[in-house]
Amino acid sequence: MRVIISAGGTGGHIYPALAIINKIKEFEPDSEFLYIGTHNRMEKDIIPKYNIPFTTIEMYGFNRKKLLKNFKTLKYLIKSYRKCRTIIKEFNPDIVIGVGGYVTGPVIYAAKKLGYKTFIHEQNSIPGKCNLFLSKHVNKIGISLKSSIKYFPEYKCVFTGNPCSEDAINKPAQNKQDFGLNPNKKLVLFVMGSLGSSKINDILIKAMNLFKEKDYEILFVTGNSSYEEIKDMKFSSNVKVVPYIENLTRIMKNTDLIVSRAGASTLSELIALKLPSILIPSPYVPDNHQYKNALDLSKNNAAILIEEKDLNGNILVKTIDELLYDDEKIQEIKQNLEKLYVPNSATKIYKTIRDVIDGK
Fold it and tell me: What topology does CATH give the domain 2-162+343-358?
């Protein structure tokens, strides 16, 4: 199989793309890939590490507040579309796959106009603007949550779940000692997305002293953008600070509780791993989709939801303490997460892609 795949901007798009690539390789080891990403976002650093052929286009998202800036964005969109046509014709793929982020727009649209088979995957309960536009131009759409089907042409949709869930199950666990943690103590993992969140990090920094007397440990993943200003701060010995963790699911397997944003891929991983969570959805994302993602879990008693506007250090520590040592509540959450799990998601996506290529 020859595959062009595109996803960008955040780990929430990039890691599902990698999960799809890994599953295709598992079924068809001789497959060839070309990854198209943006020139200045996370994928440019992540994808080459996996020895996946990688090329870039210069793309920017539309600015909803400064409308005049969109003339420049439109210029780059047209330029990127033309470049994508050239790249696609030269590579001549069996299928072109989009896994989210505005970079996928010109890639998938160019592929469809050239007559190539196309597939997109939506991770969130509310689709992004790019996937909504592309849904009219693709052969099939994989959805992670049944609630998102109403936004797409239903006949194109396949309920696949999120491929990160299957990837999470298959990855080996990582030892706590790798981070200087005690293997015999409970672990609370703080992670606010691949880019971090300066506002939440400010709250967490102020809360860290409240963990000083606790008999559990904290692994605080700041995000790359905040690490430099946080790394030299003095915290108690039961708090460890790191900028970013590659393959985060490996340490999630040895985590007792996660405090996290509510990105779709993260939620799919904690559902797969049956990991209890306190979710603090970002209010700064389009259509407030993280809140709606988190609400799907909290309504099923499968997570605790705290909105950012209601968060402070005392509330956070109180919620962690109450949950971490309530064995009955922890078991209830794990059982409810089990009910939400979609098994073999990446395999379902592979089979859908194969069917599209074979014209089924």
Answer: Rossmann fold (3.40.50)
